[in-house]
Structures are given as C-alpha cells and as structure tokens.
Amino acid sequence: MALAWIVVAVAACGVLWWRTDAAADRAQACRVPILMYHHVGDWGAPGDWAPWVVKPADFEAQMDWLRNHHYHPITMRQLQAHREHGEPLPPRPVMITFDDGWGEDMWIARQYLDPRGMPTVFFVYTGAVGAPGYLAWSDVKALEAGGHEVLSHTVSHPNLQQVPDARLASEMRDSRARLEQELGHPVECIAYPFGSYDGRVVKAAADAGYRLAVIADGPSATDASPALELPRWKMAYGEPLPLFVQRLRAP
Ligand SMILES: [Zn+2]
C-alpha cells in the first residue's frame, strides 16, 4: 500500500514537473529582447554620446553571437501578429532596432545585417528623411525591399512629454500617414523620441492608430508588456560581449 502511494506521488511529481517545464518553455518563447541601436562607428574615447554608438567590431561580434546561438531576428509585424493573433514566434526571437534614420543605416544593412540575413526595424522621423546625413525615401524603400521594416519615430523628433496636445497629435498622425503613403502598407508602431513618454503620450499614440510602441529602457519585452510601452535594451559604446549575452539571457 505504501509503495502504491509512493508510485502515485512520483507520478504526480512527474506531471507537475512536466507542466512547470512546459510553462517555462512557453514563457521563454514569449520573451523578446528588443535591442536599441543608433550609430555604428569607432568614435574614439567615450563621450556623452556613448549611449548612442556601438563600435563596429562590437556590433559585428554581437550579430555573430546571435547567429551562432540560433537567435532569430523578428520584425515588429511578426511581434504584432503574435500578440494580437497568437501567431507563433520562431525559437529564440530577438529584435534589432535602429533609431533616427541616419544615412549610415544603408551601410549598416549592407555591411552587417544583409550578409547574415538579419531583418531589422528602422525607426525614422519623417521630417528628416531626405535631409543631409539622413536616409532618402529611396533608401527607406530599399531597406523594406531588402526585408527590413521602417516605422515611425514622429515627424520632428520632439520630446513628446513637452509638446502641446495639438502638436503631439500631429507628430503621431502625420509621420504615420507619410510613411504609409510612401511604403503602401499600414504603419502601426512608433518609437517615442528619447524614450520620453507618459500617459498622455501613450493615449495619443493609441488615438493615432498605433498598436505597438517602444521605449528606451530594458528589460526584455514579454507578452505581458503593455503594447504601447514595449521595453528595449539600450546598446552603448564599448560594452563587453558578456554583458550583451547577459541581457539576451536575462529572465
Ligand atoms: Zn531618436
């Protein structure tokens, strides 16, 4: 009799273990580290720009690490389909993002992303597209044709917490309308400039038709992250690869 109870107890533990393990796998599958980059370059001794630049050798090492460890870069469209319609994500999802739409994005795509087959999300502010030092509309379209995704970063890159309601609404609405006109598909995600947002900004994003928005601080996004406040890891100058790996694997 005692033996029978032990058998039952062991079997129950096995089921519990299996359920816990499966739940852990599902939780893991829904965790998406979103990486925020701005520039790739060797700018010498670190300055106050350090949070916005990553050295080329470091960026290359990070992309190689992702590829060698079977991470799958996803687009915002994939994340939206997952969150809204339960579409499965690939194993070990990660999202690579670049802000501002600098002209060097074309070089970054050609040099590092395209050879590794890594689709990337570029957030551009539409008022700068075509200006010296920034992407042209032909570049924006070429990035999308190459499998990348271009999304909104407002019209003029203001601190959205500091602009009046009418300007807040137009920054949201007009950048989306221009991108949709140029790209010919819905643009339903925005990156708040400077990662600056509050409840009023989030409501304005929703009112303008955005379904997802990203901020500028970690940790990794999960299915539980608010849709209009998805966290991102800020990738900074001279950070060692082990720190990068630690972020990727952080719970
Ligand atoms: Zn920006």
Q: What key attributes describe this structure?
A:
251 residues, alpha/beta, TIM Barrel, six-stranded parallel β-sheet, 10 strands, 14% strand, binds zinc ion
Topology:
Blueprint: H1 2-29, E1 34-37, E2 39-40, E3 53-54, H2 56-68, E4 72-73, H3 76-85, E5 93-100, H4 104-113, E6 121-124, H5 137-145, E7 149-152, H6 165-183, E8 189-191, H7 199-207, E9 212-214, E10 233-234, H8 241-249
Helix pairs in contact: 6-7
The structure holds zinc ion (ZN).
Give the gist of this structure.
Helix 6 packs across helix 7. This protein is α/β, with parallel strands linked by helices and 251 residues long. The radius of gyration is 21 Å and the shape is globular.
Helix content: 40-55%
- pLDDT < 50 stretches: 6-25
Biggest pleated sheet: 6 strands, parallel
Approximate shape: globular
Named once each, the bound ligands are:
zinc ion
**Cα distance spanning the termini:** 43 Å
Name of the top-level CATH class of the largest domain: Alpha Beta
Could you tell me the CATH topology label of the largest domain.
Answer: TIM Barrel
The run of helices and strands is HEEEHEHEHEHEHEHEEH
Rg on CA atoms, Å: 21 Å
| CATH superfamily label of the largest domain | Glycoside hydrolase/deacetylase
Structural class based on helices, strands and sheet pairing? alpha/beta
What would the average pLDDT be, to the nearest integer? 90
Number of domain units:
2
Number of beta-strand segments: 10
